């Protein structure tokens, strides 16, 4: 139980610092950095798997708050863009998997599960059902997620500068 309290304390401190620095996804990055650093340094933080379910339930609740009558009414305007995003990302994920496999020698299906732009947890769990290098999928997906959370906000900022459409961070 002490390790769980230690882990939650680290996550809260890191999350608070990330939030105070006002960086995009600061609470997420801060918590991830602090707990990850402790893990790398050998502190062995841990959280019971049941907390993962609880975190997903809470996140689902927050996302559910965004579903309003106005959002549902606007769905008809975004069906085609949503389908395009799914199809294009799926095609690019497969294409990326093939390229990564060819360039690195990583087994094709391991590379495909590592390259898919889906939710990290879902892809890792799905990869366990197949004869692939599961630890490699975990590493690839983890690195992908960390880099996306760090790099994507910078890319969005660069696009906003390039296009002249200013993008402002909310004062959170």
TrEMBL record:
Record keyword Transmembrane present: yes
Transmembrane intervals: 50-67, 79-100, 136-159
InterPro entries assigned to the protein according to its UniProt record, in alphabetical order: AbrB_dup, AbrB_fam
GO biological process: regulation of gene expression
GO cellular component assignments: membrane
Keywords tagged on the record: Membrane, Transmembrane, Transmembrane helix
Any single Pfam family the record assigns to this protein: AbrB
Record's keyword annotation contains Nucleus: no
Record protein name field: AbrB family transcriptional regulator
Protein's organism: Biomaibacter acetigenes
């Amino acid at each position: 139980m002490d390790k769980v309290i230690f882990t939650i304390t680290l996550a809260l401190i890191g999350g608070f610092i990330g939030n105070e620095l006002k960086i995009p996804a600061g609470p997420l990055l801060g918590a991830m950095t602090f707990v990850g650093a402790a893990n790398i340094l050998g502190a062995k933080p841990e959280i019971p798997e049941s907390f993962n379910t609880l975190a997903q339930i809470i996140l689902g609740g927050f996302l559910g708050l965004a579903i309003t009558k106005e959002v549902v009414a606007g769905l008809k305007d975004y069906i085609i863009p949503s389908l395009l995003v799914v199809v294009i990302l799926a095609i690019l994920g497969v294409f990326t998997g093939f390229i990564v496999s060819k360039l690195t020698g990583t087994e094709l299906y391991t590379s495909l599960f590592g390259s898919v732009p889906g939710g990290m947890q879902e892809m890792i769990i799905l990869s366990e059902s197949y004869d692939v290098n599961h630890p490699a999928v975990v590493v690839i997906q983890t690195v992908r997620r960390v880099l996306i959370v760090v790099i994507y906000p910078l890319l969005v900022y660069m696009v906003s500068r390039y296009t002249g459409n200013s993008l402002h961070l909310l004062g959170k």
